[in-house]
Design brief:
With about 325 residues, the protein is of the alpha/beta class. It has 2 domains: about 220 residues, Rossmann fold, CATH 3.40.50.300; about 60 residues, PDO, CxxC motif (Alpha-Beta Plaits), CATH 3.30.70. It contains 11 helices and 14 strands. A 6-stranded mixed sheet has the order 6-7-8-3-9-10, sandwiched between helices.
């Protein structure tokens, strides 16, 4: 699978402190990739190095196969970014703002390109209105349009949904997913909203104390060959979980189970879950409740970044 961005042993030192410590990541084209970590973990520093706002102490970053250390100007053309809240001329229309920013680009940007970008972010009906009439969500989408004017291969977003209401966050999430799938764009998002990252991203990297703790797959890419939805943990609450587990071991010996009080935990996809429930009901087991038992990204993040996570990072720094 083609790579959009590679970080190779990237290190950033300021004074006597190591802010980023030999960070390596491979991020694929068409992938929405999340950067997670506690405050001060190094997420924003990493983003600033990728977009060229901060120098790398050692290591390298490749954008679409090109080194930012050796060919900064070439990689700059491949990048789009929203690192701070976008600023616009409020007395001008959204279209006039985009025309102004288009003129600042090194290459000529056609009206058709501007119209295409406006359509992609869903601002066609509002683009002639003055920006001072825009909601915060519309301004965020206009900022996204600005970052897409030069047709970048990679899009970097630092806390892109700050200040948005739930409807605005959902809209923004849908635009990001569409960009990745339709434009085969590599998108990196740093956010503290873990529930949104879980809905938006294909994979995440968890960073702590400037070091990579873990990368996790959130959802399988739809273009992955031989795609099969993996089994997930399901919790079944029963009147007699012990006998229910014994029954499942007899009838479905390959099924993974564990028991805790009245709760029976199984590893099963939707089809197997339905089969288990039907079997238990047929044998007259009283089922009180069935629920998804998967840990949320927030649960795993808090677990990983506690003292165990710090110990993991320390062990891998030696």
């Amino acid at each position: 699978m083609a790579l959009g961005i590679q970080l190779k042993d990237v290190t950033k030192k300021i004074g006597g402190s190591t802010i980023i410590d030999q960070l390596s990541l491979d991020i694929h084209k068409g992938e929405v990739f999340g950067l997670l970590g506690p405050n001060g973990a190094g997420k924003t520093t990493t983003i600033r190095m990728i977009v060229g706002l901060m120098a790398i102490t050692s290591g390298d970053i490749l954008i679409d196969g090109i080194s930012i250390s050796k060919e900064r100007s070439a990689t700059a053309h491949k990048l789009g970014a929203i690192v701070e809240n976008p600023d616009f001329y409020l007395y001008m229309s959204g279209l006039d703002n985009l025309r102004y920013f288009a003129k600042l680009q090194d290459k000529k940007i056609s009206r058709k390109t501007i119209d295409d970008v406006v359509r992609v972010v869903g601002l066609t009906e509002s683009i002639q209105k003055k920006v001072k009439t825009y909601s915060l969500g519309m301004k965020q989408r206009l900022g996204l349009a600005q970052s897409l004017l030069h047709r970048p291969k990679v899009l970097i977003l630092d806390e892109p949904t700050n200040g948005l209401d739930p409807a605005g966050i959902r809209e923004f999430r849908e635009y990001i997913r569409r960009l990745a799938s339709e434009q085969n764009m590599t998108i990196i998002i740093s956010s503290h909203l873990l529930s949104e990252i879980e809905l938006m991203c294909d994979r995440v990297a968890i960073i702590q104390n400037g070091r990579l703790i873990r990368t996790e797959t959130i959802k399988e890419r739809p273009d992955k060959e031989n795609f099969e939805k993996p089994a997930s943990q399901v919790v079944i609450e029963l009147a007699d979980s012990k006998n229910a587990e014994q029954l499942l071991h007899q009838k479905l010996p390959s099924l993974e189970t564990r028991r805790s009080g009245e709760q029976l935990y199984i590893q099963a996809d939707k089809e197997m879950t339905a089969k288990v429930i039907q079997l238990l009901a047929t044998e007259s087991h009283a089922i009180y409740r069935v629920r998804d038992g998967q840990q949320t990204l927030e649960d795993r993040f808090l677990e990983i970044t506690n003292e165990k996570g710090e110990a993991y990072a320390d062990a891998h720094s030696q």
